[in-house]
């Protein structure tokens, strides 16, 4: 199967142009830090969702490129802030912005990107768009705080975990998907379908990301294996392992969660694999991916909606 994002390659190039045009500033350090993290690439799935759904709905408004850039700015701002909070040193295979430039520039440039995103929203002059994106950024902030509160809590269950990732990660996917039908003037039913697709895809994406933290390699992932556990994040693979692990194995996992001690990382990976935790987590991601595909099947049938069907399926094969 070809890459489902190929169909929007021209649109994504236009989004990159908008990003370059709107990164204007008289403060060199702001531009340097912002360009450093944006140029690192990544899958750009959030803006891609907006563009794919716009195509599926036959919407050609030029505002789609502006809002796709807005979504990428918001996402980039959250990455800058996340890496400072998590004390991360590696992202997408290279030093994080906070590692290279320091914490203060990273936080402040994140603030710049948030404020620039809101300036661009105003240009679109649509209160519904403003509502969706302002609500999303608020929920994302709540998710960040909730994750902080849950740090090093070995009693965290799957429902609490899902609440965090649906706020922290899936909410921007949902907002991106919702913006397309708003721009297209679609009815409430279509908007709800698109929002469901975005939330489900974003949830599946994050679950797979958490699986890869224990299954991949630093070279493949572009980050250090076991970083989540080191930072005290209790993700679905750990939650699944704790359900069926022996008493001794649970003690090892709880110690790692509560103390961030990864001295016995090899043993931890063995416990996770032995208890089928990665497969259990992938099954949860598959349920979300199926939910996204079910929503996509309700959209108009064309090449763009076909690409929307391919995305969740391809996500389940993700290895980096």
Account of the protein in words:
It is a single chain. With 320 residues, the chain is an all-alpha fold. The chain has one domain: Farnesyl Diphosphate Synthase (Orthogonal Bundle). It has 17 helices and 2 strands. It has helices at residues 9-22, 28-38, 45-56, 63-86, 97-101, 103-124, 127-150, 158-168, 170-184, 188-215, 218-221, 227-230, 236-244, 247-259, 265-274, 277-296, 303-315, and strands at residues 90-91, 94-95. Strands 1-2 form a two-stranded antiparallel sheet. Helix 7 packs across helix 8. It is globular and about 60 Å long. The mean pLDDT is 93.
> Number of folding domains?
1
CATH domain class name: Mainly Alpha
End-to-end C-alpha gap = 18 Å
Low-confidence stretches: none
What percent of residues adopt helix (DSSP H or I)?
A: over 70%
- Spatial arrangement of strands, main beta sheet: 1-2
Mean pLDDT across residues: 93
Q: Assess the beta-strand content as a share of residues.
A: under 5%
Compute the gyration radius: what is it?
A: 20 Å
The CATH topology name reads Farnesyl Diphosphate Synthase
Instruction: Choose one word for the global shape.
Output: globular
CATH-scheme architecture:
Orthogonal Bundle
Helix vs. strand class: mainly alpha
The CATH superfamily appears as Farnesyl Diphosphate Synthase
Number of DSSP-assigned strands: 2
């Amino acid at each position: 199967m070809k890459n489902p994002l190929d169909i929007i390659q021209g649109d994504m190039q236009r989004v990159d142009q908008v990003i370059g045009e709107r990164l204007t500033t008289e403060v060199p350090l702001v531009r340097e830090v912002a360009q450093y993290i944006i140029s690192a690439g990544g899958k750009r799935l959030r803006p891609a969702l907006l563009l794919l759904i716009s195509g599926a709905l036959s919407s050609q408004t030029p505002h789609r490129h502006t809002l796709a850039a807005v979504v990428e700015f918001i996402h980039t701002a959250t990455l800058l802030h996340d890496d400072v909070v998590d004390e991360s040193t590696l992202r997408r295979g290279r030093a994080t912005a906070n590692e290279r430039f320091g914490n203060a520039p990273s936080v402040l440039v994140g603030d710049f990107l948030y404020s620039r995103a809101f300036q661009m929203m105003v240009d679109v002059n649509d209160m519904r768009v403003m509502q969706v994106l302002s609500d999303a950024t608020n929920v994302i902030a709540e998710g960040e705080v909730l994750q902080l509160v849950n740090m090093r809590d070995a009693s965290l269950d799957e429902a609490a975990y899902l609440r965090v990732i649906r706020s922290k990660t899936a909410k921007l996917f949902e907002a991106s998907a919702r913006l397309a039908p708003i721009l297209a003037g679609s009815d409430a039913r279509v908007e709800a379908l698109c929002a469901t697709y975005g939330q489900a895809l974003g949830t599946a994406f994050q679950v797979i990301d958490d699986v890869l933290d224990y299954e991949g390699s630093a070279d493949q992932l572009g980050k250090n294996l076991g970083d989540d556990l080191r930072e005290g994040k209790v993700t679905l693979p750990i939650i699944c392992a704790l359900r069926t692990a022996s008493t001794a194995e649970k003690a090892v996992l709880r110690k790692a969660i509560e103390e961030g001690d990864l001295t016995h990382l090899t043993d931890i990976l063995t416990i996770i694999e032995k208890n089928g935790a990665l497969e259990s987590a992938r099954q949860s991601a598959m349920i979300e991916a199926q939910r996204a595909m079910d929503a996509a099947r309700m959209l108009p049938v064309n090449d763009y909606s076909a690409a929307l069907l391919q995305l969740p399926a391809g996500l389940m094969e993700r290895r980096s």
